[in-house]
Amino acid sequence: MLTIATDIDALARFGRALADPIRCRILLALRESPAHPADLADVLGISRTRLSNHLACLRDCGLVVTVPVGRRVRYELADARLGHALDDLRSAVLAVETDKACADAAEKGCC
């Protein structure tokens, strides 16, 4: 059985990853299929340097892994259940209230 601290850490890592729209887009893209960084940068319309920083964050959070493919590296979700979690989370949030927009955390005094 997991401890509460482990559960909180896991959710915080997931939340940290989802806190940035680019990281959300990366996770959603990788949910569809593994990808090479150059292809991801093109699909997302961002620079490779910016993508690299976000991929490093997602790796540090343990949500994506690299798979060597010849001389290149491919990224994929660390576990297929993360794709299901993204789908479930999106569905649950949309089901609760679709007319809400999250205010800036600084305005709310959060974080």
UniProtKB/TrEMBL annotation:
* Pfam family membership, one: HTH_5
Which SUPFAM superfamilies does this UniProt record tie to the protein?
Winged helix' DNA-binding domain
Segments passing through the bilayer: none
The HTH arsR-type domain sits at 4-100
Q: Alphabetically, which GO biological process terms does the record hold?
A: response to cadmium ion; response to lead ion
Q: Does the keyword Transcription apply?
A: yes
Question: Which InterPro entries does the protein's record reference?
Answer: ArsR-like_HTH, HTH_ArsR_DNA-bd_dom, HTH_Metal-responsive_Reg, WH-like_DNA-bd_sf, WH_DNA-bd_sf
List the Gene Ontology MF annotations in alphabetical order.
cadmium ion sensor activity; DNA binding; DNA-binding transcription factor activity; lead ion binding
Taxonomically, the superkingdom here is Bacteria
For this protein, the record's SMART domains field holds: HTH_ARSR
Say yes or no: keyword Cell inner membrane present.
no
Keyword set, alphabetical order:
Cadmium, DNA-binding, Metal-binding, Transcription, Transcription regulation
Tell me, in a sentence or two, what this protein's role is.
Metal-responsive transcriptional repressor for the cmt operon. Binding of cadmium or lead causes the repressor to dissociate from the DNA.
**Assembly and interaction partners:** Homodimer.
Tell me what this protein is called. HTH-type transcriptional regulator CmtR
